[in-house]
């Protein structure tokens, strides 16, 4: 039995694990955007604070995923539920590209555009909402794109702590030394990442050249 036959025979389980994987990634990315976007904006307004934020996010990125899951497992509140722990870890991994690109996008706005907005009597908040964020949207979306692809890949490790997802097949295949089972988890995850990269890439380019 090859991988395609295995996927067809176990399509119900593949569907269930794919939905679990999407749920973990979707919730994590939503939280990462809600946290990372304001932090990225704050970095442009408070450079000293920004160095701390970017430094902390960079450190998180350097921690191996299994090690980060292990660190968080010792937390009483997070350790109670595997999905809660996994979402926290995935959110932390997704923050850096979003914060960096938000900062880069807003910082890249032409100063003359800001000066023109100030000359029209706009407040700092109005300039941010009406000028800087619309012009930086393409760059910000590029950061979300990178973060999403990273999160889809790292989410496969969530199965190691019982959080579900397509990593279940990968770890099961490793235990059985069965490449078919490994590919049953790896191939859908890779296709998911490619599709997300394609869709978000097109969306980012549309805003960038709008």
Catalogue the unreliable spans: none
Rg calculated over all Cα atoms: 20 Å
Q: Main sheet, how many strands, which sense, barrel?
A: none
Output mean pLDDT: 88
Specify the structural class: mainly alpha
Assign an overall shape.
elongated
Helix content: over 70%
Distance from N terminus to C terminus (CA atoms, Å) equals 49 Å
What string gives the helices and strands in order?
A: HHHHHHHHHH
Quick recap:
This protein has 210 residues and is an all-alpha fold. The protein contains 10 helices and no strands. The protein has helices at 3-9, 11-45, 47-62, 65-73, 76-79, 82-107, 111-119, 124-154, 167-176, 179-208.
Topology:
Layout (H helix, E strand, L loop, with lengths): L2 H7 L1 H35 L1 H16 L2 H9 L2 H4 L2 H26 L3 H9 L4 H31 L12 H10 L2 H30 L2
Helix pairs in contact: 1-10, 2-3, 2-6, 2-8, 3-6, 4-6, 6-8, 7-8, 8-10, 9-10
Overview of the molecule:
The model has no long low-confidence stretch (mean pLDDT 88). This protein is mostly helical. The protein contains ten helices and no strands. Helices cover 84% and strands 0% of the residues. The protein has helices spanning 3-9, 11-45, 47-62, 65-73, 76-79, 82-107, 111-119, 124-154, 167-176, 179-208. The chain is elongated, with a radius of gyration of 20 Å.
Name some characteristics of this structure.
single chain; 210 residues; mainly alpha; 84% helix
